[in-house]
């Protein structure tokens, strides 16, 4: 179970399905490898990943927290899209954590109180030998950070660019999620869903929710006619 110091906000639950086992890495395999081994003796203390919405940034941050929690380590996931309008009190005592995962960094850039709190949190984590993962929609040098010391800190770690998945990566992700649900998804059916379904990978994967329920209810295998009817295409 994820644990956090009492001064930090609770209730920031991790999605149960945001794990490494159901993330299709594709071109992001080097990044996934770094995250998986971040707590090794030679692991990278600070990782920064960036890319547009829909590439899986939040998924990987939460997966890193799940993995650390499974090793009985203390973690905290901070989605700043949801929390950025609060004062940065949740960054107090972060050195008591083993891993801090900050999502949507761009949401608080340019705000003096947040930038100062992030700078001091970075230093305390570094001095305590702890781990930090940050995700944003652009690379560090393109963020309009006002505090020069924080801007410098953000370039210290290893930076990874997460690009939008191509068709083969989306296909791999679709079939991986289907197999984890115990669904038989033939190649031709998967490609039909890929080409007729939404472009955003998250929306595409949600089609499996409908198909899983429909196939169980009808006791039918997934075929193109069945998928077409179930999804209203």
TrEMBL record:
Domain of life: Bacteria
BP terms from Gene Ontology: DNA replication initiation; negative regulation of DNA-templated DNA replication initiation
Residues annotated as domain Hda lid: 167-231
Alphabetized InterPro entries for the sequence: DnaA_dom (IPR013317), Hda (IPR017788), Hda_lid (IPR055199), P-loop_NTPase (IPR027417)
Ranges of residues in domain Chromosomal replication initiator protein DnaA ATPAse: 94-159
Gene3D superfamilies documented for this protein: 1.10.8.60, P-loop containing nucleotide triphosphate hydrolases
PANTHER family for this protein: CHROMOSOMAL REPLICATION INITIATOR PROTEIN DNAA, DNAA REGULATORY INACTIVATOR HDA
NCBIfam families from the UniProt entry: DnaA_homol_Hda (TIGR03420)
Protein name: DnaA regulatory inactivator Hda
